[in-house]
Amino acid sequence: MNKKLTEQEIKNLKGQGYILQNDREHFVCRVITVDGSLTPEEGKKIFDISAKYGKGYASFTTRLTVEIPGIKYEDIPKVRAELKEVGLYAGGTGRRVRPVVSCKGTVCNFGLLDTQELNRRIHERFYLGWYDVTLPHKFKIGVGGCPNNCIKPNLNDIGIMGQRKPKIDKKSCSSCQKCAVETSCRMKAAKVVDEKITIDSNKCINCGLCIKKCPFDAVQLEQEGVKIFIGGKWGKATRVGSDLGEIFTQEEAMDVIEKSILYYKENGVTGERFGEMIDRIGFKEVQQSLLNAEILKRKEEIINRS
């Protein structure tokens, strides 16, 4: 790196997704994958860039962005231009909404929703749409397709988890000697009591596995949607997200995300994570604000605050 960069220039580059390596000579380019997937054309371009300007390899981060290490400062404009040729761009850092992470619920046998499609919607509306909105700290969103919790949505600032809530039709229960519903329940929430299947709502995690198990349709779908956790984070001081306590539609979840970001923007202190703000203010108060639409009326006012 021939040019001596100022700390502000280094900070600005980091905000654009070009992070100075510990050798203080080269940069890592963090490429956004949107939903954790790449087309053959996009993948080829990333590895071509790595061969031409980097160290000849690329690696995935824990949040499914792709990093190309070993880029010289003077090559950054060329890298940016070549990424643009296939619709890719760098980013994913700073005090803003970060790239969204989703599991493979789209194709997984346990997936209860199209996680990647929802990921793309969230990315478009909140990562791109709110990119210039500065928040107190980073804000991470995770989308999990079911309660298997593979991408740990409850360890994100906002976590979304697919849900299928079962209900019992006791009239349809035939009192089978070996109940397929009871056998299929890994949480031991489904139990035969007095020759009829029952579900303990305190143990049930709404995975939906039991719904298709009864040949007599004694277990049916009552509600389908997503659970939302708020304020989770990993790292040195892990905080498990707090459950908002309802099953939401995907459209409702999009609105909850927006209200959460607005609330954080308005009430958070610089350097304070969303979960830390919740602990300071109190979960009940934050929950109440996120379950009504009042804050949306002040959206423009909140966004435009310095």
TrEMBL record:
Family matches, as SUPFAM superfamilies: 4Fe-4S ferredoxins, Nitrite and sulphite reductase 4Fe-4S domain-like, Nitrite/Sulfite reductase N-terminal domain-like
Keyword line: 4Fe-4S, Iron, Iron-sulfur, Metal-binding
Statement: the UniProt record of this protein carries the keyword Iron: yes
Record PROSITE patterns: 4FE4S_FER_1, 4FE4S_FER_2
Gene3D superfamilies: 3.30.70.20, Sulfite Reductase Hemoprotein, domain 1
Domain 4Fe-4S ferredoxin-type: 164-194, 195-224
Domain of life: Bacteria
InterPro entries found in the cross-reference section: 4Fe4S_Fe-S-bd, 4Fe4S_Fe_S_CS, NiRdtase/SiRdtase_haem-b_fer, Nit/Sulf_reduc_fer-like_dom_sf, NO2/SO3_Rdtase_4Fe4S_dom, NO2/SO3_Rdtase_4Fe4S_prot, NO2/SO3_Rdtase_4Fe4S_sf
A Pfam family that the UniProt record links to this protein: NIR_SIR
Name of the molecule in the record: 4Fe-4S binding protein
Native species: Clostridium tanneri
